[in-house]
Amino acid sequence: MDESSNPQIALNDEERFPLLDDLSFLNKLRQDEFAPKFNFKSGDRLNAANLLKVKAHKKSYYDQKIFWTEGSSPIWLSDYLQWCVKTVPFYQNKNNTLESFSTIAREDIRKHPHLFVSNEANLAELLVYYTSGSTGPKLDVLFDTATQAKWLPQIESVLEDFRISIKKGKKTTAIALICAQEKTLTYASLSTYLEGAGILKINLNPADWNQPEDAKKYLEKYNPQILTGDPIAFTALMDLEPKLSPSAMISSAMKLTKVTKNKLESYFRCPVIDLYSMTECRNIAYATEKGHKVIRPDLYLEVFDEHKDIPLPYGERGELVVTGGSNPFLPLIRYRTGDFCSLIIENGAPYLIDLEARNPVVFFTKSALKINNIDISNSMSQFPLAGFKMHQRKDKLIQFVGYSNEIIAEEIIAVLNGIFKNDITLDVNIQKISQNNTVEKTQYSSELISN
């Protein structure tokens, strides 16, 4: 994390947790003999009014999930557009119909972040997050405390489909975000929404711990109910062979292959849920056999042509576009995600079909036959890869870097040769996963320009 991205204003614990009188469990998490060298302090800052907002949001949208049907729009959309036009400078001088809005992109937010802030937003509650920059320059994303805390009802909504609930209370660790990076913020915190339950963010890098075995001992001692992270971090955690009993693991940020998912589920004996989310609007959908099932009734999803400002019919593939959310610092109307899929509605629920994160990339054989990256993604799902990158040079050589602790280079070469009709030169490198990885999230790139 860049030094300039570090928080500039320090709060005390009473300000971080205004509704929690007993912070003894927080102190226990921080001061445990096996605790990591935490480098940050975090809290949800929820007061009574904002806690009510979070609970009301859950009741309105998640207790009964009512989406929309083909040919119609959500019941909340008209009021939302009217509110945006009235209070958000970027959307002024627009009509109150969705058709009057053109799509917006990441660069609009980067250039004019202040224009997306509603004049009803409470600046005293401003929180700033930033995206990793894996698909471009880093982007500051603004939230308020209530919007930030709503990620928990979103997670609960996913877990309900698996008949899993999060136990509340000040004596339990609800969620641990697992990282395996060279450097990241780490902290112990509490959730006011979960009645004082513990929230951890830890990094498995041995440099973050006093003793090499402390990471395993600390996690075993507090045994978080839910583990979140990416496939790299989960694979690194599995290599430590901890004795944990999570109710579920939620993977995001990178593609989760079927083999890696199966290995994690076999070891941890719980569902491993592949979640699709974005910093700009948080959680959106999770992977099923049918496609990614949408979990957010407060988001309206459309699919647009990649190059033209034209919405596509249901079932046609294009760029996913998002409208909605409940963030007064960044209300979204037709925001291009940079991710590609087709959209269908089945049994009242929207599904994202063949979701591919970020721009589709076309690769070429030596004889100029086009190869779609979706075919590559599907083929890589059979391998125990926690992540991979694939790049084609101007001379058409394919460079493949995979992250796995198993010897699978020859198998991957064989599969890629099959996809490319044995008409390609390959450079395949499988890198071992450790507890302090430096991994770029962008999967596909090419120096060749396709029309």
Automatic annotation (TrEMBL):
Keywords noted in UniProt: Ligase
Limits of the AMP-dependent synthetase/ligase domain: 127-324
Gene3D superfamilies named among the record's database cross-references: N-terminal domain of ligase-like
Domain of life, source organism: Bacteria
InterPro entries for the chain: AMP-dep_synth/lig_dom, ANL_N_sf, CapK_Type1_Caps_Biosynth
Keyword Ligase: yes
Alphabetized GO MF terms: ligase activity
Signal peptide positions (record): none
PANTHER family per record: CAPSULAR POLYSACCHARIDE BIOSYNTHESIS PROTEIN (PTHR36932)
Protein's recorded name: Phenylacetate-CoA ligase
